[in-house]
Protein: Acetylornithine/succinylornithine family transaminase
Organism: Alicyclobacillus acidoterrestris
Amino acid sequence: MSAMTQIDLAQSNALFNNYGPRALRMVRGEGVFLYDDAGKQYLDFTAGIAVCNLGHADKGLAEVIAKQAGTLLHTSNLFLIPGQVALAQKLADLAGLAEDAKVMFVNSGTEANEAALKLVRKYHASVAGKARTKVLSLPNAFHGRTMGALSLTPKAAYHEGFTPLVPDCVTPETLADVLTAIDEDVAACIVEVVQGEAGVYPLATDYLQALANRLHEVGALLIVDEVQTGVGRTGRFFAYEQVGIQPDVVTLAKGLGNGVPVGAVIARESVAAAFSPGSHGSTFGGNPLAMAAGNYVVDTVTAKGFLDGVCQVSVALEQVLRRYFTNVSGRGMMWGFDVADAKTFAKQAVERGLLVTKCSPTRIRIVPPLILREEHVERFESIVQKLA
Ligand SMILES: Cc1ncc(COP(=O)(O)O)c(C=O)c1O
């Protein structure tokens, strides 16, 4: 470790405390493994919180990033960025929306949802011809931390000290209440197909279809938040493909850049039309570096056989989880399960070289890189069988 690194760490009290104390210091990654500053290896079932789908230090991605950095990092959206045009076309084709799709780039999940919230209001005001401002979200949803996204995230603890939130962002008490709340005043409803932060709970297919139909009936829009589920995490490029619903707006981030911050909003053409020049923007959004990473990631994840491999290893992973844990739920490479004490479980996992995340005092979430192989699942089993 360099002297500089030692000084930085010793002075880390200059940081805000919004993440609490963090004991581990990761300094290197390779594939599905992370290494701390003492050289200890960890099987990384956090993947940067569902971000590093291609694992750590992917050689192809590193080359693409280095090449782009040596050519052109940033121009702003004053200029047309060729990488945006290419990536937008790929995402629009993959999305399979009811009309041709258009894409706009941002830098994170919360920004994508923030933009989606603005877009659906603007759509009703300027395209659909009647202003509607009410946007619904679901119980236990998580959509991000900026004011709009936070207003669509019903967890009371996240709201504390930040009120008043954005008006007309409403989360009914139950899933059934969401259906009955949908009327001609509703602009849109935002959903996660698998509620990740809540504990990795897939929503029932018939519920999602009923929700989509009801929104359609009243001319309200369906926003599917694929920030965590998208880019192959559930075994298909978009999780909504697995449940037979067609969104009007889709938000993406996390896995899209494999660690380079990239977010995107995909919308069907007539909805995207609500944004005219000046409606919305981002200095960094879709910059050449982000687009180099995004294009590489999408090409890799959509290459023949990649997602079949994810589905195959996912079956082995699910079998192991069901052998040792209760209340196992999830899809593809995102799973949750119950434990007696999540804090103790995560701590003991770290001691044995496994990284997981807690999503409640009794629930663990795992979101390993999509490049996970059966040998890694075996290693995972050898660790958790001592913890379960
Ligand atoms: C479903 C979902 N939406 C939005 C977000 C917010 O994304 P970000 O942290 O990139 O702002 C997250 C983050 O966990 C998420 O899981």
Observations:
- The pocket of pyridoxal-5'-phosphate is lined by residues 108-110, 113, 142-144, 192, 196-197, 225, 227-228, 253 (CB under 6 Å).
